[in-house]
Design a protein that fits this description.
The structure holds 2 protein chains of 2 kinds. By secondary structure, chain A is of the alpha+beta class. In chain A, 33% of the residues lie in helices and 24% in strands. In chain A, helix 10 runs antiparallel to helix 11. Chain B is built from 19 helices and 27 strands. Chain B has an 8-stranded mixed sheet, with helices on both faces. In chain B, strands 7-15-14-13-8 form a 5-stranded mixed sheet, sandwiched between helices.
Chain lengths: 292, 765
Amino acid sequence: MYDIGKYQEATTVEEALRYLHDDPGSRIIAGGTDILINVREGKDMGVHLVGIQRINPLRKIIVNREGTLSIGPLVTFTELEENELINKYVSYLGQAGGTMGGPQLRNIATIGGNICNGATSADSASMLFCLNARLHLRTKESERTIPIQDFYLGPGKVDLKSGEMLTEILIDRIDYQGFAGKYTKFSQRKALDIATIGCSLMLKIRKNIIEDLRLAYGVAAPTPVRCCNAEQYAVGKMVTLEVAKTIGMKALEDVSPRDSWRGSKAYREQLIQELAQRAVMELLDQGGKKDA
Amino acid sequence: MEFRIVGENVPRKDAVAKVTGKARYTRDMGMPNMLYGKVLRSSITHGRIKSMDIHKAESLKGVVKVLTPFNTKCHNFPTAGHPYNLDPNHQDIADRNVLTDWVRFYGDEIAAVIAEDEFSAKKALKMIDVVYEELPFYLDPEEALKEGATEIHEGSKNVVGHNRFTLGDIDIEEAFDQADFVYEEVLEVKPVQHCQMENQVAYAYVEGNGRLVVVTSTQIPHIVRRILSSALNMPVGNIRVIKPIIGGGFGNKQDLVLEPLVAMMTLAVNGRPVLLDMEREECITSTRTRHGARFYMKTGLRKDGRIIAKQLKVYGNGGAYAAHGHAVIGKMGGDFYRLYPAEKAVEYESYTAYTNCSVAGAMRAYGTPQITFAFEAHMDNIALEMDIDPLVLREKNMVQKGFVDQLTGVPILTCGLPEIISKGKEYIDWDKKRKQYSAQTGDKRRGVGFALFGYRTSTYPVCLEIGGARIVMNQDGSVQLQMGATEIGQGAATVFSQMAAETIGIPYEMVHFEEFTDTDVVPFDPGAYASRQCYVSGKAVRKAATEVREKILKRASGMLKIQQFALDVQDGNIIRADNGEVLCHVGKIALDAFYNRTDADTITADVTEVSDTNCIAFGGCVAEVEVDIPTGRVEIMKVLNIHDSGKIINPVLAEGQVHGGMSMGLGYALSEVMLYNEKTGAPRNNNLLDYKLPTLMDTPRLDVLFVGENDPTAPYGNKALGEPPAVPSAPAIRNAILHATGVKVNKLPMNPQTLFEYFCAAGLI
């Protein structure tokens, strides 16, 4: 039982942007796995929706000549996990998406929706932070490309302007080439759950020395968050258990988890340290790098 | 006893209907012209309604009527699915009305909308303005029982019930003085919820002849009928209750939750059909829960590990209404006393308190999972302190065959405990692993743990145990088996049919069982609760089937001109008892019974059987866990439930029953808990995202073993199996965690956050 005031369905980006422009209060529905829950709970009763599910160009994953990976916002998590290009270049992004909900949800929920919903717990978001993803946003009249870090404003709040739509997620070659990566979702259940802490790690190692390391968390702050202190510390270090532990501890300087009934601050801090440390050691075991 | 059909893996009667989607649940049906009801639930935890404005809601298009506590009239009623007690002093507490102006928990029912469609009904709820006057609230039973606490029910002092008993020749304190070792501690379990797949749902209407019909997903149709009669002041005979196929109950439907309200709704609209279909959020908050409890436990032992004195004081969290009253917490006394009888003295005292939590009621195994967690944890703590193997401690103390329960007079005639221990030890390689895991360091540590329990099969002698069965033979010799006992997914229709087929001597396929339980049709039986139906109602099946068999043989004897004692019924045929020669099919006898011009007399039996025995099922769980200390996560490496439930009527169904119980036990152990906002009393996690019911991904391989012998008091050698599987997993896992880490976790659930706190306190993190 959903109280939906109006529904318009677009088949092209331009059409969608026109609907959004003409009805400024309206909202985009893609997979619907967030918005319909809100409507059912009575939070967005009478909402005006613009459906974009049939805009096929938004489902594409391509690599251009420069090696920039472009992911359409309508790509579902199942598609992301199974996509050849994703598996070739950023398999850990697919793996992160594969921890969402359950199979039915992953078949319908989209990566664009995950980002635009603005939740710190979004399983794809912290990895996109590591990947320095850029978001291409369009309105009827204008377009812009911004780093994902700038898009997240606060809990559930993103820099999506009235009439604006996410049309592309971009990742440059320099941001994935030579990296190994791993997403660790720590949640109470192994499926159908939200993360207590989500930890995204990317690591580039040469001769056991850390050439580059990127670390980001979900649920460790009001938005997904990159850990610059930990990253700066790590570069140039020889990987040992001690170094891995210190990376975990340094990460605490960059995060601000809170006490809630879903988990205490102390417990989240414990996980933040522990998950980073484990991920570093695990990626080291895997060789710490991948040919690009 | 040798059986031909009992003990066989015959397919479920409803298997095909369920897998093809043809099975009809309440929500699959409904009526033409049906209206939809929605309930307005309180948004405070304790207080009075000062005023309620329904004008806006009433004027919304599609709204037919808005019911409030001020415009409805209904007698206070009890809700528990107990047999009626003729002694007014022992009747269930009638503290409930359909709608209330005294809010007692967050989510209490304060108004209801009837509308042409669900959408309008839901919309109208938001248009009702309520002004409250708030009162202090209590989420903890001991807080609610404190002197001067605000009463949740007038005159109750917040006591739902209290009981106390002492057993033994000497005073408990004297017995403790004689002990070489006394161990005392506090343990705690929190409320959890059934989360049965199908939420409560019902619809009601009034027939042209003025009779009220309520179609409801209930475990207890005949009891619903009686309680509706007293709530609505309507003769029982004017009420018809129909139970369709059910998507689970686990005790949550052993209470009247929405039936009085849906009945009131149809009566308010001249008998037009009204549907009330609860949403999951409502179901978690506003139906029933498993009682939380705090246990103050003290045990005295001799040097050799024999228990000489046991003392327990329990404070149970009854929630906002009495529901099952003190029965759940009171029952724990018997479990506490019976499994490890103390040599000298036992003292048990318990309170059930009214609190402003969701209402506690019956949930699979009715108090036994709670007390078993507490006492089995206590046993392992004692074993650790005394440096004894926990199984040796149990073997020295556990109850044996021949024991007579002093509280009930029920003797233990069969007891599989020794076999449960030996089989469990073998499965987990106990002796080796207890040693191997005794001195671990590092982040990941393993441990093995065991827990035992005893479980009384029916409620006798606490309650009346009565069962009814009617068997009507068809013209082809097949039979209709009609019972008030209910199929609620557990397989009752199948096993009752096996029993009837066994005793009559016809194939299983020739027994037909209508899963719709209609109080206009089926004989009286209080329904599915305890683990009673196979045992109590099974006796009624045996009695009716025996009568039918006698009638078949008598008629066959006359038709075949062979003396009755020389005949037998087997596999649907009349045979010679001595050499098995097939003489004719039962269909021939049936046809004669219907149409013999001089001697027609159809073959039927309609019986009631009162069960005045009881028996104790036993069981245990053994588990191996790996504890990830820095994250507080527990992985279950191996887990086995072993059950002595006497004769297993249908092993495949029984195994399924055990799997479900173990899953429930694992959730109880590691993740499930109902959380309330301490500042407001509002539920935190009344949805299946935040209420951590384990998923299949969280569930390890579940191993099952049955042991034991046929119980002589039972109709087919069978003892309880419905509820027991949910009992032992939590304490077994808890004891394995103790073995792995040396940390005594004395509360549930043992989720990562809780274990993190315990491990920090113990210096492991």
